[in-house]
Amino acid sequence: LKERILRELYTHKGEYVSGEGLSIKLNVSRTAIWKHINALKNEGYIIQTTQKKGYRLLKSTEKLTPEELKINLTTKELGKKIIYFESIDSTNAYGKKIALSAEHGTLIISEEQQEGRGRMGKNWFSPEGEGIWMSLILKPPILLSEGTKLTQIAAAAACMAIRNVTGLEAYIKWPNDIVVHGKKVCGILTEMAGELNRVNYLIVGIGINVNTKNFPQELIDKATSLAIEKGEPVDRKTLAINLLSLFEEYYLLFIEKDTLEKTMEICRSYSTVLGKPITIIHGEDIIKAHALEINEEGFLKVKLEDGRQQLFSSGEVSVRGDGTYI
Ligand code: BT5
After folding, report:
1. Any residues with CB less than 8 A from the CB of 42 and at least 6 apart, and which?
2. Cis link prior to 175 (omega < 30° from 0)?
3. 142, 163, 250, 287: which could form a disulfide with 146 (CB 3.0–4.6 Å)?
4. Nearest to residue 110, comparing CAs of 138, 71, 77, 82?
5. What SS3 state is found at 235?
6. What does the pLDDT read at residue 197?
7. Residue 323 pLDDT
8. Three-state SS for 295?
């Protein structure tokens, strides 16, 4: 109901909509309307209310509420259900808790994460209202071994969404970072569960530093935000919507048409590693190599120092530049 009320207010943005009119149109009591209007106000919408004329939407919320996202979202599968938090430990951790019973495409989004997670137990800095901290629960009919491809799909979508919305030159540091001007603006964490011949679910977590102003000391050299790089605030909503549509586009190409071509084309065109000397961190091992190619499966092919070639899957390694982060 809240969403339908908001739609009405949006349609008549800047004009008054009468409480009675709303109650007739939506077939609910005026008290119910009033309650939802109050809830919307609490979410940050500025709605003028007068006894005689009714309600007038002056300004929408800055928050990434389900109503705000849904009004602009045109996806078929992703984000049909949105679970929203002001604060949570981690959207990926929450996703895991509900994954088995959740419907495919469920989006979990939070204004802040208290214990945002990176790969292998690392932390992800997720301050309130400054970024997009979200996870998608997906249930595609694929093999467990194919799960890492979703990281590549997410990376391609995040890279293109950032480029489209901000005009910044975003690049992909294989396998799961998006960087702008040499610093990380976005990270992806894909987690999955299943048996060998099928996944039960995947949780694709995406974190984007959109309007973050200050980073903790230990991140200053390697992290940045879109707003810092662009020199002005970036609209989180527009970016989130764009990201979800591109994600769905590349995802459906993979699932329905069985092709990763588009994803890989983006991952290659905007790669920071291809053709460069890199250091691969594989468990305890630190391997010096030259990045040759990202293959059709999304694996990185490298040439080792002894001349042998080896393939790495995105699940198993971290990559550094030669002595640098990029
Ligand atoms: C990642 O891990 O880059 C995956 C990050 C995924 C975050 C999303 S947010 C929504 C969802 N819910 C979660 O709990 N997580 C996902 P990795 O490649 O392991 O990089 C982690 C490293 O990046 C840390 O060890 C820091 O050095 C650095 N880092 C931490 N916070 C950062 C930030 N906000 N921006 C840039 N770098 C950061």
Report:
1. none
2. yes
3. 142
4. 82
5. coil
6. 86
7. 67
8. coil
- Strand (E) positions, 75-209? 82-85, 107-110, 131-138, 170-173, 177-180, 183-195, 198-209
Q: What was the pLDDT predicted at 186?
A: 98
pLDDT of residue 314: 83
Beta strand spans in 119-264 (E): 131-138, 170-173, 177-180, 183-195, 198-209
Q: Is 167 left (phi over 0), alpha (psi -120 to 50) or beta?
A: left
Residues (pLDDT < 70) of the chain are: 323, 326
Non-local CB neighbours of 56 within 8 Å, separated by 6+ positions: 9, 14, 15, 16, 17, 47, 48, 49
Ligand 1 geometric centre to CA of 302 (Å): 25
Is residue 135 within 6 Å of ligand 1 at its C-beta? yes
Q: pTM higher than 0.90, yes or no?
A: yes
Q: Is the CB of 90 under 6 A from ligand 1?
A: yes
Q: How far apart are CA 123 and CA 40, in angstroms?
A: 33
